[in-house]
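Lab meeting, action items carried over

1. Structure of the two-component assembly. Owner: GW. Status: complete.
Input record:
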Amino acid sequence: MKLKDLAKTIRSKDAGVDHITFDIIFDDYNNYEQVKKANTINREFIGELYKVPQEMITDFCYFDPAHAIKFTIQRDEPSGSPGDSDIYGCQQYAPLLDIELDI
Amino acid sequence: MKQVIIHSSNGHLGYAPTKEKSFYEGAKKMPDFYIADSGSADIGPRYLGQDVCSSPRSWQKHDLRLMLLAAREQKVPMIIGSAGDQGTNKSVDMYVELIKEIAQEEKLDNFKLAYFYSEIPKEELLSRLKKGEIIKGLGSARKNLTEDDINQTDKVVAVMGVHPYIEALENGADVIIGGRSSDTCVYAAAAIWKGMPEATSYFAGKALECSSFCAEPYGAKETVIGYVREKSVVVEAMSDFQKCTPASIAGHSMYERSNPFEEIFPGGRIDLTECNYQQISEKATEVTGIKYIEDNLTFKLEGSGKVGERRVIVVGVRDPLVIEQLDEAISWARSEVKKFYGSQKIKYKLYFHVYGKNALMKERESTNNNPHEVAVVVEAICDDKQLAHEIALMGGRGIFYARTSKVKGTAGTASVLFAEVLKAEPAYKWTMNHIMTEPDWKKISHLNYLDI
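Predicted assembly:
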């Protein structure tokens, strides 16, 4: 199944001016548990999906109280710098939508 | 039961108008305070750097009026943090003027207004560095502050904590207008002043600071009410279509933060690892298990500086063969610019944003299909306006005249929108995102009082 059919919310947003944080939020606790157990989505996976070295992934966690996966990537340049086309960091999540999960 | 009731109507006052129906529903709860944060660092560096607002004055006045009238009628304090989107001195002055205007228009009875600034003069930072003080970068993305960083900065503000707000309330202020402040602290200060523990006060601030973003379904600018108690915080949605649920409150803890388990502010932090979230009524959730940890007094410094003048040209391409070879065309355009301007040793920056291919994600984009149409937004930055204009123009025309191997449309391989270079505001950069240690907050900021 694709992640977009399992998760209720998939979003990205600046977390301060130097980082973009990603949230994948499930409203079905079972879905969250199964995805967590499968461990398909982890630091290494995100590093490859976003073509980003591990040291640029500053945080990664499964946040149980919100049934959510959360990770944060350091920006190459601070938000709103010359050449930045996504000041809010809110349009970086599309690659997450079609992640295939064996569920 | 001992509790402090806080009315939160807007997560960023002025950015979009407050929704009135839920505002008045919230007022019926007879809150002890009307509080709103009016700033954000998400809007880009230019507003701080240029000292301008991103929110229209009429929207700011609309929201301030709603709060002022309700607060004065119920005779409870009104608190606004980070005035005017960026919390500069000029923005604080503007909000003070707006309050005076509204008070006069509505013929309000006298009240006491307190305001404080949080800008830091560059000389102050330079002198601290000279004395050997280390001002650390926030996170791994930044190195320690250098003289160079300060010289590149046009404006810097310190993000204040609860202290100026508590002092103003101590001195009987009815309305408080704050410079740049931690949004959590603008709310926490009220509860702490009333005697609530730090743990629940700061958590309430964290939950309330984006108003209805902590409720579901999604809807901004609606009012939520926070009940701050000794051992718990209850958050209740006031709009008819929303409710605060354990998932929505926990979900909000993650919003805009890299670490959902803690919230850091001047003087300490709260630890949310052991939090418990319970739905206690249809629209309200109670949170317990918050821990407060005291720390040294440190302040985040936000600084922005101008990089150069910006000019933009939008070039449309519909020929699929050119689109296939767009990288080649752009390379050619870049090299033309470099030959002409690079040789004159002119410093410039040139960007090609290709909408339809990878404008949003750039090198991180994995989708490789060629669309049938693209817009190439050419962005040129240079100290000189005329040069920025010429460089943008040459970049755009470079695509128009592109020499690629499969040219069919020999009258022009791209179409320039409006046939002109568009003027944009100057380009800025966040030059500072650092932490300064200062045990005495009064060295950064002080309160002023006015009788209105």
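2. GW to write a short summary for the group page. Key points so far: Chain A touches chain B at residues 9, 13-19, 21, 23, 25, 27, 49-52, 55, 58-59, 61, 63, 65-68, 70, 72, 74-75, 77-83, 85-88, 91-92, 94-95 (CB under 8 Å). The longest helix of chain A spans residues 29-38.
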